Fold:
Amino acid sequence: MEQPLKNNVRPQYGILAILMIGAFIAFLNNTLLNIALPSIMTDLEIEAPTVQWLTTGFMLVNGILIPATAFLIQKYSVRRLFLVAMGLFTLGTVLAGVAHFFPVLLTGRMIQASGSAIMMPLLMNVMLVSFPVEKRGAAMGVFGLILMSAPAIGPTLSGWIIEHYDWRMLFHFVTPIAVTVLLIGFFLLKDKKEKVDIRLDLVSLILSSLGFGGLLYGFSSAGSKGWDSLHVYGTIIIGIISLITFIIRQSKLDRPMLNFNVFQYPMFALSSAITMVLNMALFSGMLLIPIYVQTIRGISPMDAGLMMLPGALLMAVMSPITGKLFDKFGGRVLAVSGLLITTVTTYYFSKLTLDTTYSNLVILNSIRMFGISMVMMPVSTNGLNQLPTRFYPHGTAMNNTLNQVSGAIGTALLVTLMSTRTETHAETIGRDAMTNLQGQPTEAALAELQQQVGMQAMLQGINDAFLVATFIAAVALVLSMFIKRAKQEDEALGVNVKPTEQPMVKDVVGEN
Structure:
């Protein structure tokens, strides 16, 4: 059974501080890389469908490992998990920093992701058991503000580093900080943990890996191999079958990795659907906008980072404000308003030209981020509010997993769409350009024409991807109209929880 916190137990502020610094570094590193993707494409001579694996692969590893963190947190002490997580993250950072070939860089990112996947749920769990309910909101507010500062400063810092140094400096910059945090944790974390006799269901872990991995590989490979390739539809079919098997197995386990009974609560199911759909549009924009401003417009990495800064700062500022508005007005008003703003601004991003002004890009991105800030927290909170307390660990794990995977699939799908549409537009534009040529063009003129055709084709491909993202956001907008203010239910809908499914919080933060 869940052990209530005693009144004389004080929060372990030292542990929380160390964990929060580690989580901040991991989150900052992920935002640093987005601006660097065009530079990596040029340096390593790879295409957009390949380089986007640095983002989608990171999210996929998180999506696979996050369900296992519930087991890890119950099985091992905070100290052991933190040292393993930070050690993996540091190792991946060092490896990525010395990479001169894409497979090495991708391997480093995947190792980073394995550490990051443990770090965030570990911090959230420690915070939940460290503070009583009446103080938990304030603690989460501080936590949110600190983490939101990472995407605020990340793109600008990344742009400055890329403009003055090689992209590998992004990893060299993080390495000494990660090593310092690892050493501090090694010497200062002293929590204890009772021995817990539980085992991880390896079959479930394998099935989830095959399921999510198959889907992502299939979507990501479509850009280079085509949708009619066996590598594409074969792996998607394997992924779907594995996921169905995984879901069936979870319903039969006493201690499932992910308890799918949470979807029997309608507001939680609706919130999951909305956030998944919105993530598909959100993560694609984070990848497509840097490609447009740097590859097509030739805007410097520093200016590209500054372009993203106002929107990220706006999201950070809106985080506590949105929380208060949610308590007063509920989730539907905020979600409908935010998604309407998001849908309209995404549509305007599908109208980019070679002459779109820098100020228009800044304003449009800021308004889009403002709209998204009104949706994420209210929708997720409203869904979790309907769950009985005993389902909170399963609900949060499910949300985190679906967010990672939907973001990865959305990015892969829209970047694939951008690539295939770019090829189609290149053929059409190139044919028209050759038809309009007069006389015998010189080799220099042909080279210049080819470059112009390539840029125009990529621009049209990006616009097509944003147009599809507009329809995706519109789907979320329609779903948000069915949101109702959720009330917590207990033993509702005939869902019975086995004793082994009770959340375990004992000894998570150790002894004072």
About this structure: The two ends are 22 Å apart (CA to CA). The chain has one domain: 13-201+253-501. The mean pLDDT is 78.
